[in-house]
Design a protein that fits this description.
There is one protein chain. The chain is built from 14 helices and no strands. It folds into two domains: 1-129, Ankyrin repeat-containing domain (Serine Threonine Protein Phosphatase 5, Tetratricopeptide repeat); 136-230, Serine Threonine Protein Phosphatase 5, Tetratricopeptide repeat. It is an all-alpha fold. The protein has helices at 8-14, 17-26, 41-48, 51-59, 74-80, 84-92, 107-113, 117-125, 140-147, 150-157, 175-181, 185-193, 208-211, 214-229. Helix 9 (140-147) packs parallel to helix 11. The longest helix is centred in the last third of the chain and has 16 residues, at 214-229. Helices cover 51% and strands 0% of the residues.
Amino acid sequence: MAPPEPTVYDLAYRGKTAAVKILINENPKLKTDMDSNNRMLIHWAALGGHDELVSYLLSLGLPTDPKDDMDMTPLILAASGGREKVVNLLLNQGADVNAKTNDGHSSLQYAASKNWKTICAELLEKNADINITDKRGSTPLHRSASKGNLAIVKLLLEYGKQLKIDHRDVYGNTALHLACEEDRQEEAKLLVANGASIALTNKEGKTPLELGNMILAKQLKEIHDKNVSV
């Protein structure tokens, strides 16, 4: 049995620019038609990382920030997928850097969670909200610290006072709470060295040190005490 013919959305995801152009020329409605997930061709081209096709679609007058059924924009999809060229293109075309999905996840949150440092830097340069929160109150710092993405934590800390290092999510956890709970030792040490509180309690009444192992807790206390004495 022969496999089904690829849809125009399949072709966009695969970066078959010439084939997509032919189909759009034959049926101009395709440029704004949506699939069953309310995704346009530009969503699939962005997710696939095909900047040439994204650029072509934008040249036809497509909106930069159409939302699918989960409120994901092409920029969010590209940032989540690590598609640097597409992220750069969309940002330069004025894409909404702080758009959120229906769960409140932004491009920066996805990039921070998936350890895409260059993309995080590009988003921040375009004024992404460094403290943006999802529906659970998590910030990009929460995500990167809990995942053990040390390079992202360092990048976020470079923004100094702009970063709310002790922001608490809906469970009362700071990024340090999550780093300790997940045994992300280097991330936890870096956070404390940069002033993260070891005394704040979450909604269960636990401090970060109470969520980590005893050795890590001792090391963090030493770093904290050294900072205080300076």
